[in-house]
Each structure stands twice: as structure tokens, then as C-alpha cells.
UniProtKB/TrEMBL annotation:
Keywords in alphabetical order: Aminotransferase, Pyridoxal phosphate, Transferase
Provenance organism: Acidovorax delafieldii 2AN
Keyword Transferase: yes
Similarity annotation: Belongs to the class-III pyridoxal-phosphate-dependent aminotransferase family.
Gene Ontology terms describing biological process: gamma-aminobutyric acid metabolic process
Protein known as: 4-aminobutyrate aminotransferase
InterPro entries, A to Z: 4NH2But_aminotransferase_bac, Aminotrans_3, Aminotrans_3_PPA_site, Class-III_PLP-dep_AT, PyrdxlP-dep_Trfase, PyrdxlP-dep_Trfase_major, PyrdxlP-dep_Trfase_small
Record bears the keyword Disulfide bond: no
Lineage: Bacteria, Pseudomonadati, Pseudomonadota, Betaproteobacteria, Burkholderiales
Obligatory cofactor(s): pyridoxal 5'-phosphate
Gene Ontology molecular function: 4-aminobutyrate:2-oxoglutarate transaminase activity; identical protein binding; pyridoxal phosphate binding
Length: 426
């Protein structure tokens, strides 16, 4: 009979330790916002497969779309024999992306691949090589995206050297005293110290940093960056791999700052659990690479395209964008109430249903408490709730619950967070 401990032992013997595992749990079944492990224990899922399940585990409409697709064809490679779902998905994403200009969309398989391709496209269009990313940013595990990722341990350790011409500006944080002006000044400094603005192809940021700790880019930063990019002929790229597909209350988070990036990357929740990613952007920019310069064997798989179309339908049918805003309110209110009796909660922040709390020692926001964060996640697991942590100092608890979860289930999960913290810090 299968149990978690024996499966963990087999896993450790067969799989490299570099593939981490935040919870020592093996799953046997999942439904919407709940999962059951091989020992029959039930958990509420506030992780959503790291922001992949905005429409829930095994969403019925997504399952139906994939089953129909299975009955027709599963793979041809789009560059060999094309299929309509890829084209329809591109048309629908083009229509959703902000900006009053013609757009085109490219499909790939993973978030990192989308980011890599956005940089390739930006370089091909501008004829420049430089990339400016941000401290605390996360863009993936390939060598170029690692170069762009603004956190060393554990991602970059032992893997260098990384591709050249990638620089990091400071990401703003009101809690830690980094203002939007400081951020802009740090970019001007890169132009002075490292690379001339005329050689920079792109500035890339997450509208809300995901792995970095759910740090929200203030709208005035987005507007500043848009102006700065226009001044210097630099492309602005929003990495919406984690924020996209409705997580923040709009389909793309960048919509809320009123600016239109030149390129947007997305992945994760766009296909409800099936692997697909996208780059959407200005048609003339997207057309810069020559024929054959873009693609991939599995890129834009028919099964994932069918799933992604069903996800778009589900958002419209159930107004999941409004639901995202409502869930965000509910979680924020609950965590702010909890903060009233726990000075260890330095801040509750987020956008829409992308909400996190940062934990500190001695009520001092500048003393990150990674140990408490880890202990809280472990205590919650014991009580039947799957939580994820993040942040440069590992001291942020983040919530990425499916938007299809009902209020009762969300409240049950929030009550477990409160009970866990009360137990750890009576
Ligand atoms: N960009 C962002 C903002 C992400 O959050 C992630 C994944 N956490 C990635 C890129 C990389 O995506 P993937 O793991 O699918 O390659």
C-alpha cells in the first residue's frame, strides 16, 4: 500500500535532490480547490500548483475540451501541420492584451521559454542586446532567465556563467524604504555605469513580483517605465507568468496601471493545468524574427490550446475576474484582522486574489522571520491546508487559491492560517 514516507524514500533514491519539494506529500486525487493524498488525507489547496489553477483542479469545462481534442488529434507540431485552436487562441489573446495597436501571439510550453522568446524578439526588433530586470524578480530556470532572475540562492548557485548584458534595477518596496524614485534612479545609474540606454533592448518586470514576495509595482512606476522606454527606444516587457490569466482581478495585471507594454509573457493558469505559455505583443515587434526563428516541437500543443480556450470561456461565463477581486478582499480582510493580534505580520499586500503576508521578528519589518514562515506552512499542512512561501528572505506566505473555490472553503483555509499562527505564537 502506498504511503507518503515510502514514496519519499523512493523519490530520494531515484530523483536528484535539486528538484525540491515543499511538502512531503504524494497526491492521489484533486478536485477544484481540494486534494487528497495517497493516505486518504484531505487538504485545502492554497497553492494551486504555483498559480496554475485559477480555474481549479480538473475544471469540468477544461476536462471536456481536452477530451474532445483527444478524439481528434493530439500532436502534429504547429510548424509542420497547423490547427485552428492555436489560431483562435492567438486571436482571443490579441484582443485581450492592452494597447490600441495591432498584436500577435506566439505560443510555447513553459514560462521560462516565453521569457526567453520575449527577449529574443526584443533583440531582433531593436538590434540591441541589453536587458534590465529587477532585484527580487523571477523569470525561470534556463540560463538566460536565470541571468534575469534577481535572487541567487537557490536558483543560480553553481550554474554560472550566465548570458551577458543583463542588469538589475531596484524593485520598489514601501515597507523597506525603496521608493519609485529610487527605482528610476537605479535605472539611470545602470545607464551611467553599465550600459548606454541606446544599447538596451528591453526592460522587463513582473507587475507583481511572484517568487520575490508578492511585491506590487506601483502604477506610477509602470507609467515612469513606459515614458523612459519610449524616450530611449527600449521595449517594455511585462512578465505576467504568475500575475496573468485573471489572478489579480484583470486578465493582465498591467491593465490596472493604464499602460500598454510592448510585449507580455504568460503561462501557468492560462490553460488550467496543461503546459502552454505565450508571448503577446505589438505585431511589428513580434514579426521581427525571420521565418523559422521561433517555435518548438510541443509549442502550442493542441491539447493545451483546447484547454486554454475553455479557460477563457470559464472566465467569461462565471465572471471570474470579479470573483478574483472579491476573493482578494476576503483574504486581505481576514489576514489584516489576524495582523491586529500578531505583530509578526509586518504587512498584508497584493493585487486582486494574489495576496501575501510578510512575517518579521520582534515586530520589526526589517528582521525577516523565515523560521516562523516555514513553521507556519508546516503547521497549516498538519491542519489540512497547503500553503506556499516566497520572498527574497523566505519570509512571505502567499495565497494562490483557485478562483473557483467557494467562500466556505476559503474561510476554512483562512481559519487554519489563523489557528496555526495562534498556536506558534500564543
Ligand atoms: N516568470 C514568472 C513571473 C514566474 O513566476 C515563473 C514561474 N514561477 C516563471 C517565469 C517561469 O515559469 P516556468 O516555471 O513555467 O518556466
Amino acid at each position: 500500500h502506498l504511503n507518503n514516507a515510502s514514496l519519499m524514500a523512493r523519490r530520494e533514491a531515484a530523483i536528484p535532490r535539486g528538484v525540491g519539494q515543499s511538502h512531503h506529500i504524494f497526491i492521489s486525487r484533486a478536485e477544484n480547490a481540494e486534494v487528497w493524498d495517497v493516505e486518504g488525507c484531505r487538504y485545502i489547496d492554497f497553492a494551486g500548483g504555483i498559480a496554475v489553477l485559477n480555474t481549479g483542479h480538473r475544471n469540468a469545462a477544461v476536462m471536456e475540451a481536452v477530451k474532445s481534442q483527444l478524439d481528434c488529434y493530439t500532436h502534429t507540431c504547429f510548424q509542420v501541420l497547423a490547427y485552428e485552436p492555436y489560431v483562435e487562441l492567438a486571436e482571443r489573446i490579441n484582443a485581450k492584451a492592452p494597447g490600441n495597436f495591432a498584436k500577435k501571439t506566439l505560443f510555447l510550453t513553459t514560462g521560462a521559454e516565453a521569457v526567453e522568446n520575449a527577449i529574443k524578439i526584443a533583440r531582433a526588433h531593436t538590434g540591441r542586446s541589453g536587458v534590465i530586470a529587477f532585484s527580487g524578480g523571477y523569470h525561470g530556470r534556463t540560463l538566460l532567465t536565470l541571468a534575469m532572475t534577481g535572487k541567487v540562492a537557490p536558483y543560480k548557485l553553481g550554474f554560472g556563467p550566465f548570458p551577458a548584458e543583463v542588469f538589475h534595477a531596484r524593485f520598489p518596496s514601501a515597507l523597506h524604504g525603496v521608493s519609485v524614485d529610487d527605482t528610476i534612479a537605479s535605472i539611470e545609474q545602470i545607464f551611467k555605469n553599465d550600459i548606454d540606454a541606446s544599447r538596451v533592448a528591453a526592460i522587463i518586470l513582473e507587475p507583481v513580483q511572484g517568487e520575490g514576495g508578492f511585491n506590487v509595482a506601483p502604477p506610477e512606476l509602470m507609467r515612469h517605465l513606459r515614458t523612459l522606454c519610449d524616450q530611449h527606444g527600449i521595449l517594455l516587457i511585462c512578465d505576467e507568468v504568475q500575475t496573468g490569466a485573471g489572478r489579480t482581478g484583470t486578465w493582465f495585471a498591467c491593465e490596472q496601471s493604464g499602460i500598454a507594454p510592448d510585449l507580455i509573457t504568460m503561462a501557468k493558469s492560462m490553460a488550467g493545468g496543461f503546459p502552454i505559455s505565450a508571448v503577446v505583443g505589438r505585431a511589428e515587434v513580434m514579426d521581427a524574427p525571420g521565418a523559422g526563428g521561433l517555435g518548438g516541437t510541443y509549442a502550442g500543443s493542441p491539447l493545451a490550446c483546447a484547454a486554454a480556450l475553455a479557460v477563457l470561456d470559464e472566465f467569461e461565463k462565471h465572471d471570474l475576474l470579479q470573483r478574483s477581486r472579491d476573493i482578494g478582499q476576503r483574504i486581505t480582510t481576514s489576514l489584516r484582522n489576524l495582523a491586529k493580534r500578531h505583530s509578526s505580520i509586518a504587512e498584508v499586500r497584493g493585487l486582486g486574489a494574489m495576496v501575501a503576508m510578510e512575517l518579521c521578528k520582534n515586530g520589526d519589518p526589517h528582521q525577516p522571520d523565515a523560521e516562523l514562515t516555514k513553521a507556519l506552512a508546516a503547521e497549516a499542512t498538519k491542519r489540512g491546508l497547503i500553503l506556499l512561501t516566497c520572498g527574497t528572505y523566505g519570509n512571505v506566505v502567499r495565497i494562490l487559491v483557485p478562483l473557483t473555490a467557494d467562500d466556505a472553503l476559503i474561510d476554512e483555509g483562512l481559519a487554519i492560517i489563523a489557528a496555526s499562527l495562534d498556536t506558534l505564537q500564543p
